[in-house]
Task: structure prediction
Amino acid sequence: MEHQDKPSKVKTDKNTKSIGRFLAKIHKTETCWIWTGAKNQYGYGVLTVQYKLRPAHRFSYETFVGPIPEGHDVCHTCDVRNCVNPSHLWTGPARENLLDMCRKGRHRSMPNAPHRTGEAISALVAEYMRCHPLAKKRGAA
Result:
């Protein structure tokens, strides 16, 4: 993906004040836009928008790219949880996000995932989605 220092378009339906606060909490590196504001317990950036706590990467995607399809996660190509660079973000269903996570060995219970076969990864994802309450709630299972 091509690196963008400035987003090509900003959605005008967002609160201008929220966008200004968002941009003030970014440290731009050569590749990532690192969120310097508050983070949740998993390391993802969060900010308050219209009195609601929002994930910073989702706010970035909606502001600079467009709406997030219903039931989709906003995923990172760079695998940096606190990156909010819109050119590093993509959307996909929860299952696709989990498969990507497992293939890259980013799940804490999968230390050797990069060395596992596709069949083993699929079995682990199926088990995760069967048992994990969040996956069930979001309809990934």
Remarks:
- Confidence is low (pLDDT under 50) at residues 1-8, 110-115.
- Residues 104 and 114 are 6 Å apart (CA to CA).
- The chain has two domains: 16-92, 94-137.
- The chain is about 35% helix and 15% strand.
